[in-house]
Amino acid sequence: MSSITQPRPAGAGGPAASPGSHTPPGVNGAKLFNRLCAVCLTLFALIWLVPFAWALITSLRPDGSITANPTSPFAGGWSLHAYSYAWDTYPIGSWYLNSLVIGALAVVFTVAFCSMAGFALAFLRFPGRNVLLALVTAGLMLPTEALILPQFIEYRSLHLLGTYWALVLPSVAAPVSVFIFQAFFKGIPVPLIEAARIDGASWWRVYWTICMPICRPAVSTVSILTFINSWNAFLWPLLVLNQTKSQTIPVGLASLVNNSNIQYAEVMASSVLGFLPLIAVFLVFQRRIVQGVATTGIK
Predict the structure, then answer these.
(1) pLDDT tens-place string over residues 20-33
(2) CA gyration radius, the chain
(3) Which of these, 26, 199, 269, 276, is most buried using a 10 Å CB contact count?
(4) Which of 251, 246, 224, 233 is nearest to 164 (CA)?
């Protein structure tokens, strides 16, 4: 009767692997894939970080040395003169305040209205629900530039041009935010909702006391994405805000670049002051951003 001999594991008291033995191909493939991913991540990180580092270094250099040696970051020495000059010359504080107020209002109204819309599409059954869902889906496919002219005519007829509401209201009706909330609400077990309804809870109580505390990652994701999009918006604020002190950070920085005599150090210093709040937001909420985006992708 023949018997099957099992191979001994290497290093477990058995003979050592011979120099010519082959390592399983899956191990080398995994290591090679990990190294390839690390190289790609490093390359893309450098592509993203080099402009920021260049802007920061240029903002610390004198204008004369930038013009004479634009590619030498250490020529002419470093100083903070461009920051003090830009802050004292341009209304950067007003631009900060405008962007902050508009971003905060956009976050509050977007979370409130889009969460209620996502809740209705996830749990409520009403006539025209599928049509409404199709309209929201169509909103994802329309480019933002195609909506600028109709929105401009609409807000001009409502006499909202030149006000904060002209910037806040378009970001409130964000189809992607509605879909994020709908995906999270659909992940809530239906028996939990039915038990609450049997106990006499109204739909508003189900939404506010049961669903919203569970959907904190969705709230964080929508809040952070809305604030970043509102802070970085350029074309629409450029059209609806025409006064210098009512402009936002991106529009204000663009007005500095359009001057005939460009002072590179001041422009770069203003740019650094413009994206510093976003870096602070990312560093503070980094964990929630990664968690929210990952959970949204899973949904």
Answers:
(1) 455 555 557 788 88
(2) 27
(3) 269
(4) 246
